[in-house]
Amino acid sequence: MGWMRMIMKFRKTEQALREKEELFRKSFEMAPVGIAMVDLDYRLKKANRAYCDTLGYSEEELRHLTLSDFTHPDDLEKNLRLQGALGRGEIRHFEMEKRFIQKSGKVVYGILRASLIRSQAGKPLYFIGQVLDITERKQMEEALKVAEREKAAVLNSISEIVVYLDTEYRILWANRATSQFLGISPEQLAGRHCFDVWFHRNSPCHDCPVTRAISTCQVEEGQIVGPDGQAWLIRGYPVNDEQGAFVGIVEIVQDITEKQQLENELLKMKKLESVGIFAGGIAHDFNNLISIILGNIEMAAIQDHAGPPEFLSEARKATLRAKALTRQLMTFSKGGAPVRKRGDILRLIEDTAAEQLKNSGLTFQIITSSRPETLLFDPEQIRFVLENLIINAREAMPNGGHLQFTVENVRVGDKGPESGMPLCEGRYVRISITDSGVGIPETLLPLIFDPYFSTKEMGVQKGMGLGLATSYSIVRKHGGHISAASQEHMGSTFSVYLPAGEGETTILSRPAEQADHKIAGNSVADTGRKKRILVMDDEEMVRNIAGRMLAHLGYGYAVAEDGHDAVEIYEKALNNSRPFDAVILDLTAADGPGGQETLQRLRQADPQVKAIVSSGYAEDPVMLRFREFGFADVIPKPYSIRIMADALARIFRQPAGE
What's the confidence (pLDDT) of residue 511? Predict the structure, then answer.
């Protein structure tokens, strides 16, 4: 019975052992990770299905391979080194990420965990390793890295500043533009608060769009002007996770300082253009009225053979001052184009400064590092600009001071201090006029070039608010720019940019105007010798005073209201063999053809017609280059009997057709 019990116990033990072995075998075979038993010579003893599937070999094929046959060359040295340390008992186990080479040649990634199995006596028997296939995970990681690189490449190519913030305003990521602008590496920016980086504050900005976006969880944008005057457009874009929870915010910052400057310049130009249209019409009508007043004053003075009374002389002086004012108004209009010629800008500055600062107690200095480049400019107009700037500087230094003119050659391009100005790329001469006066308040500085803006009491002799506006318009029409910088109690600097030019421009002389304010007397009478003149003007009182002047000068005359009447009267006189010796044509007419069209029609009837153009638009191209448009001479309004006499005398000295 004892033997039977021993046999039964042995059988049960044997059965239990077989069951355990079967359980181990199934666990080994069905394990989701690859498992391999490797002898001490690194030859495979046994491998489960997952291991074989990972490498793409059968178990039998693997028994004939060594470790180097299916290990990536770059990982073999580390694998052998760790395996050797394990075999020598230096380590109990190891883990490494390695690349396996499948039978097909494809590389797969796995995590290898290896340990050494020993006998009860401690003798090494074999290695056992587990391989977890992480190829899919590595592919996802690589795809994520590629996406991160692409995202970084896209965001780093953007010129705007792009920053990713957490909900506490801390910078998590910044693009290259941010780093370049701040001069701080992205790594140094990480973790810092945006309000500290931008404005050196200890707390968020009160009206920052990022603050609003964090509060509302909606896209917000707005403008912020920094302490240095730079303007920024800031946008905040909330970022939500997959569950919709707010996790951060993307801040995009754009420097719009230059854009705002250009917009302000454009607005200023549009304002000047609007005023120009209005001023041109007003000045034209005003010139007609001045012509009537001035003409009648002169005719009244002529009738008094004892000489003009003092009150007529004063009235004439006031009228001539009004005439000068219309010249300023005309600068805004379409007729204010400059007539350029090559000039010496240094000489013009020196002469103008010496004249305007004479007996003022002020000193001036002209500084130039090199000879200014060639300039083509209208000397009368640029002299006007210099005079206005010098007068303003003189008035800003009532207790004396110093005026400095700095003349430099500069180049305007995409970069540099002049890059934000409304100027075409190219070479310019910059004339900077710096005074040591009271300066201009910051609130008034943006307004100083506006028409009719003045800090002086308004009046003919005080401030009409047209000096700087006219100067701005003149410089713009030269293709240049004028800017101002000032600090209260620290003085001001006005900078005039004029484009450098090549060659020389042909200039036709303007008609000379009466140099003094004396009233013309009988010295110009009886010069007409009964020649007949036809006057076309749409203003009746202008026609009347022109007729009186012509009669006083000894000319016969007829008048026409518009171009149609003028052509009809001229042709009728021609057919009656009593032709007119000359015609005076108003350049513009409210109704009917103006002077240019009328002249063309007159030439059809009489190719030898002598025509004089007249207009209040003294700087209209037709008035400035009258011969190019077929006219023999020009009479600017308001009329002066001396100018009319001289113009008629000139054309009657010319051969017909010139």
Answer: 39
Percentage of residues in the chain having pLDDT higher than 70:
77
- Total structural domains within the chain: 4
Could you tell me the end-to-end alpha-carbon distance of the chain, in angstroms, rounded to an integer?
157
Q: Are 497 and 484 contacting, i.e. CB atoms less than 8 angstroms apart?
A: no
Query: What's the whole-number average pLDDT of the chain?
Result: 81
- pTM metric for this prediction: 0.46
Cα dist from 124 to 86, 142, 222, 234, 278, whole Å: 10, 40, 73, 69, 106
* Residues 30, 134 within the same domain: yes
Question: Residues 133, 177: one domain?
Answer: no
Contact 632, 654 (CB under 8 A): yes
Q: Which residues have a Cβ under 8 Å from the Cβ of 267 and sit 6 or more positions away?
A: none
Q: Is the pLDDT of residue 129 over 90?
A: yes
The values of phi and psi at residue 183, to 5°, are: 70, 30
Residue 159 and residue 86 in one domain? no
Which of 345, 272, 365 has its CA nearest to residue 499? 345
SS3 label, residue 644: helix
Query: At residue 303, what are phi and psi to the nearest 5 degrees?
Result: -65, -25
Q: Which residues are CB-neighbours of 348 under 8 A, at least 6 positions away?
A: 379, 382, 383, 386
Q: What's CA 634's distance to the chain center, in Å?
A: 42
Q: Are residues 488 and 559 in the same domain?
A: no
Least confident of 29-43, 218-232, 350-364: 218-232
Say whether both 405 and 463 belong to one domain. yes
Q: Please give the sequence-ordered ranges of beta strands (E in DSSP) within 318-401, or none if there are none.
A: 341-343, 363-368, 375-377
Would you call 541 exposed, middle or buried from its count of C-beta atoms within 10 A (0-12, 13-18, 19+)? middle
96 burial via Cβ count (<10 Å: 0-12, 13-18, 19+)? middle
